[in-house]
Design a protein that fits this description.
Layout: E1 19-26, H1 33-43, E2 47-58, E3 63-68, H2 71-82, E4 89-92, H3 98-111, E5 117-119, H4 138-145, E6 151-152, H5 156-162, H6 172-181, E7 186-189, E8 198-205, E9 208-216, H7 225-238, H8 243-259
Parallel strand pairs: 1-2, 1-4, 4-5, 5-6, 6-7
Antiparallel strand pairs: 2-3, 7-8, 8-9
Helix pairs in contact: 1-7, 2-3, 3-4, 5-6, 7-8
The structure holds pyridoxal-5'-phosphate.
Length: about 280
């Protein structure tokens, strides 16, 4: 594995940097979305490809408007990149419309079914605004994508929304296992949105609980913490880490980015992903 946090050396075998394909929305505040993905991948020595799925009008407090990019445009961008720059992993953030979710899954199935995919099932901004277009059901669209997903990274609210058939508020493991039964390889439930003293995240696969992380809850709120974590896991997968190792390192990177976050606007603090992080 290449050393981290210095300019990476050319990969002797291929003459290439590891490449991460990122699909997601653009958040002009630079807290979340594709900017978070691109900053994270770059900080970790991975080259990001960035396919925009939605434009948002947004600041550090909340989103005000979302416009999904037409699916044929995203399909064309995927085809074009795929024919030119091979990626080693994919990070999917906001898909914004059922047509975009279908476009991604079709491309993945037809073109690159062996590529690891980290999908952050974004439904709304932490300020509360729904980020999907009003037409179509995001839950059904995201569930249809699960067979293409190596790791799903819902927060608790997203986990509950994605598994309406599981009863009970506390059935985290049952909900995660249900998502694995629908096709996800593994589910990392992140606990930033829960009122616990520490931020706790748990990794599940079809067999049950596979890992648990707890980090001190920092004061204040953050815009883009979930995007940072999912992009870091995907970057470490692109670097050749196994899933557990990738989650482990991504937790450390995200904790450092949040500890260095700045209150740049009037809302949540914006993570600093420029390093150094260890
Ligand atoms: N905007 C975009 C484009 C996103 O992709 C996301 C999260 O992934 C958000 C906003 C929400 O970020 P947060 O929940 O940190 O406010």
């Amino acid at each position: 594995m290449p050393p981290l946090h210095r300019f990476p050396q050319r990969d002797e075998a291929e003459g290439l940097l590891p490449v991460l394909l990122c699909l997601g929305g653009h958040d002009p505040s630079g807290g979340a979305g594709l900017v978070a993905d691109v900053q994270t991948a770059t900080a970790l020595g991975v080259h990001p490809l960035s396919v925009v799925t939605a434009l948002t009008v947004q600041d550090s407090r909340d989103a005000a408007l979302v416009r999904a990019v037409p699916a044929p445009l995203v399909a064309a961008a995927l085809r074009r990149l795929d024919a030119d720059i091979p990626a080693r992993a994919v990070k999917v953030g906001l898909l914004a419309s059922p047509a975009l979710a279908r476009t991604f899954c079709r491309w993945w199935r037809a073109r690159r079914p062996s590529l690891p995919v980290v999908l952050d099932p974004v439904l709304r901004a932490s300020g509360g605004r729904r980020l999907w277009s009003v037409a179509g059901d995001p839950v059904a669209a995201l569930r249809d994508c699960l067979p293409s997903v190596t790791l799903l990274t819902p927060n608790h609210e997203e986990l509950v929304a994605l598994t309406p058939e599981v009863a009970g508020d506390e059935e985290e493991e049952a909900r995660a296992r249900r998502l694995c039964a629908l096709g996800a390889g593994a589910v990392l439930v992140t606990g930033g949105d829960r009122p616990t003293p520490a931020v706790e995240s748990t990794l599940y696969d079809a067999g049950g609980r596979r890992g648990h992380w707890a980090s001190p809850r920092l004061p204040g709120s953050f815009h883009g913490s979930g995007c940072t974590l999912a992009a870091a896991v995907a970057s470490f997968l692109a670097l050749g880490y196994d899933l557990r190792g990738a989650v482990d390192e991504a937790q450390r990177f995200t904790a450092a980015a949040l500890a260095a976050a700045r209150p740049l606007g009037r809302g949540a603090a914006i993570p600093w992903r420029g390093g150094p992080w260890r």
